[in-house]
Amino acid sequence: MNYLELLTVPNLLTLSRILVAPYIAYLMINGRFQEAVIWCFLGGISDVFDGLISRWMGQESLFGAAFDPLADKIFASIILVACVYLGLIPGWFFALVILREIVILGGIVYLNSYAGGVEFSPLWSSKINTLFLFLCIGAAILKNIVPLGYITHILLVATTLTTVYSGVDYIYLGWRILKNGA
Question: Which domain holds residue 66?
């Protein structure tokens, strides 16, 4: 594979999310929440545009399909660690988000070892969960700049519900694959 083929606009946008996440955490830890919110917003927007641009420009790739969700997880995890460290979100929420990822990854590994060659596309419940997770993170940071009232709590509850629902949705998908493929 030619490495220059990997340097597409969508893949560079995806990579930018990984690279900017530690900087956002740094800004947060140093109390620079306005800048952190802007960078967090840009990171979230890059998640929307990398997929749209890849389809529009015909630059969809297996690398991008695998790398994009990984970038989302790295981006969110780094910022969530900073949020927990600063007391902006509870530790149990971070644990729930990570548990969902472990269950999904473990299920994929198990299914591929058991059924072999199982391919997954992100479920809609997962895309909605990612949207709510990014909104929740943004609100947790933004509440240090402007009063948001109960918005952060509502987003935390909504994100918790979509995290659980999405995790169960993947478990159900895995169960169906095992049932039909075994």
Answer: 3-181
